[in-house]
Amino acid sequence: MAGRARRHRRVTDRTTDRATGRGTVWPMTERYTHGHHPAVLANHSARTAQNSAAFLLGHLRTGQRLLDVGCGPGTITVDLAALLEPGEVVGVDNVASVLDGARALAAERGQPNVRFEQADAYALPYDDGSFDVVYAHQVLQHVARPVELLRELYRVLRSGGLVAVRDADYGTMIHAPDDARLHRWLELYHTVARGNGGEPDAGRYLRAWVTEAGFVDELTTASSWCYAEPSATQAWGTQWASRVSEGSFADAAVSTGAATRAELDEIAGAWRQWAAHPTAFFAFIHGEVLARKP
């Protein structure tokens, strides 16, 4: 496609090691840790522009063209389209079946200025400078080459365009009442996610990655998600019980020898017990970065 310059792409992503500060080469492959279990999609479908992109909303202008990378079921994407109308919003994901649900949601809401396409975020099918804004929510934690991916977002942005990225930091997750099985879950999640090529503590590294990718005028913030209301703790705990025992996370943990099915069943039980506790509490922070293409 015309204009598809590749000067920002590299075969591997050689940069500073996220933990040690030493130079390293990140792996070429990755696997989405969460998978697309119904519990995952249900959780992601609760995301809105307000609860997942608040750090971006004040910087948007009607009529802009926005790309949502890793849009999943499209709930945030459709919200953004409503805010930018008559501007155009494009949501991309690498899983076709997820996009079917996103298209259905857009049709249900009667949102005409949004479309969804299957695409590889490392090689987007758009010309250089195609978008005013590129947004990626909970994406960079799952990729093996975050700086390379950010360089591709840089490519499709116009000069002066805005990138907005937000990712969880699993290392900040806290819970009460205390349960050793949930501490084990968090340790196991880090093991599985990193084995899949990702970085579960991505929130703290976004600023460094965005800067290395060439963006300027970065504004870094943090926000939290907290689960303390009974309906919220029930939903959060129940979906994690399912993901630990049935989904892609469980399959990866067992196939790599990181855990046994029996241990995962114990952890799932801990999540259900936590979800039903009258004073259950769970919270963690997200790193958020806004930056511009020079």
Question: SSE layout and pairings?
Answer:
Blueprint: E1 14-16, E2 23-25, H1 38-44, H2 49-52, H3 54-57, E3 66-69, H4 75-84, E4 89-93, H5 96-109, E5 114-118, E6 131-137, H6 146-156, E7 157-168, E8 174-176, H7 180-195, H8 206-212, E9 216-227, H9 230-246, H10 248-255, H11 261-276, E10 281-292
Parallel strand pairs: 3-4, 3-6, 4-5, 6-7
Antiparallel strand pairs: 1-2, 7-10, 8-10, 9-10
Helix pairs in contact: 1-9, 7-11, 9-10, 9-11
Descriptive key words:
single chain, alpha/beta, two-stranded antiparallel sheet, disordered N terminus
In short:
With 294 residues, the protein is α/β, with parallel strands linked by helices. The chain has helices at 38-44, 49-52, 54-57, 75-84, 96-109, 146-156, 180-195, 206-212, 230-246, 248-255, 261-276; strands at 14-16, 23-25, 66-69, 89-93, 114-118, 131-137, 157-168, 174-176, 216-227, 281-292.
SS strand fraction: 15-25%
The dominant shape is: globular
Portion of residues within helices: 25-40%
Largest sheet, in brief, is: 8 strands, mixed
- Alpha-beta classification: alpha/beta
C-alpha Rg, in Å? 19 Å
Spans where pLDDT lies below 50 across 5 or more residues? 1-28
Number of strands: 10
Mean pLDDT: 89
Distance from N terminus to C terminus (CA atoms, Å) equals 23 Å
The number of helical segments is: 11
Task: Give, in order, the helices and strands.
Answer: EEHHHEHEHEEHEEHHEHHHE
